[in-house]
Design goal:
Keywords: Chaperone, Cytoplasm. The chain is mostly beta strands. It contains two helices and twelve strands.
């Protein structure tokens, strides 16, 4: 905490047992401190005592105190150049591609993939174990394969968008389409094994 006297600018170092007074450099503009240069290890604590200041009453910390602009749906619909008008205009030209995907999308590729199989996932030749095969309600329609990677190369721990599909360590889980998965003899890689030259 700094105790400042404009005639004798000093600072008290707060993290030491014995306060040490050290010169401070202050620049004043219209009776307010507009710039302060301190030494390392010091903390400047300012308390605004001006009742007309925007900081009084918590205006900078509590956004619920700030009056929000509100507009009715009817008035918003009358405006041109809004995001809602943009969506109406271009939304019909580019329908959601996921709506065309059937529920049995890539089901045939899942016939040879079983939970517990060792696998390699493309791209990147990431290796792991199959932990889930089936439809995932929180993802796009069709079939998905849940993988526990040998290394933390995934995005989650088996929980996707609030639904748990399998358990694995953090950042070791991934949900991929079956066409990216190749099952077979893919042992865990030795991190100390070097490629032959």
């Amino acid at each position: 905490m700094c105790v400042v006297d404009p005639d004798k600018p000093t600072a008290v170092k707060s993290d030491s047992d014995k306060p040490q007074k050290t010169p401070f450099r202050f620049f004043y503009f219209s009776n307010s401190m507009s710039y302060c240069v301190s030494n390392n290890g010091f903390r400047l604590h300012i308390i605004d005592l001006d009742p007309s200041s925007v900081t009084s009453g918590g205006w900078l910390e509590d956004t619920s105190l700030v009056e929000k602009y509100k507009i009715s749906d009817e008035a918003y619909d009358k405006l041109d150049g809004t995001f809602r008008k943009f969506k109406e205009k271009f939304g019909h030209q580019h329908p959601n591609p996921e709506s065309k995907i059937p529920d049995n999308y890539m089901e045939d590729l899942c016939a040879n993939i079983k939970v517990g199989d060792r696998c390699q996932v493309e791209p990147g030749e990431k290796r792991g174990v199959v932990k889930f095969v089936g439809r995932a309600e929180t993802l796009a329609p069709g079939f998905w394969v849940g993988i526990q990677y040998d290394e933390p190369l995934g995005k989650h721990d088996g929980m996707v968008k609030g639904k748990r599909y399998f358990d694995c360590p953090p950042l070791c889980g991934g949900m991929v389409r079956p066409d990216k998965v190749k099952v077979g003899d893919f042992p865990e890689r030795d991190p100390f094994e070097e490629d032959e030259i």
